[in-house]
Amino acid sequence: MTTSARMLIETSIAQLQSLSACLVSELGALGPRRPGESLEARACKEILLSITVLVPKLQAARYVIGEDEQGPLRCRQCEDG
User: Fold this and answer.
1) Left (φ > 0), alpha (ψ -120 to 50) or beta: where does 32 sit?
2) Cα separations in angstroms, 28 against 11, 25, 39, 45, 62
3) pLDDT tens-digit profile of 6-42?
4) Is the dihedral of CA 57, 25, 22, 39 positive or negative?
């Protein structure tokens, strides 16, 4: 099975956005922020922070790849030698 780079990026963005929505919901269920917040709440916040950094980078990568690329995802460094 080959996956185009663009399709892989689109899928990753959608999955990260879904995960983000779940985490926001989970944080809401945990209640208001407290000085001694749980490890679960801190982990959710760390993951959300990472997602907010990754999604814009993936969105930008979409435009670098371009609309016409339909071939399989390849590692250019690996192909160079």
Assistant:
1) beta
2) 26, 5, 15, 11, 32
3) 899 999 999 999 999 999 998 888 777 667 778 888 8
4) positive
Question: What are 63's two structure tokens?
Answer: 């435009």
What residue spans of 1-81 are helical by DSSP H? 5-30, 39-65, 76-80
pTM of the model: 0.70
Query: Which amino acid does the sequence have at 73?
Result: L
Single-letter amino acid code for the residue at 18: S
Residue 9 burial class via C-beta count within 10 angstroms: exposed 0-12, middle 13-18, buried 19 and up: buried
Kindly state the tokens that stand for 56.
């814009």
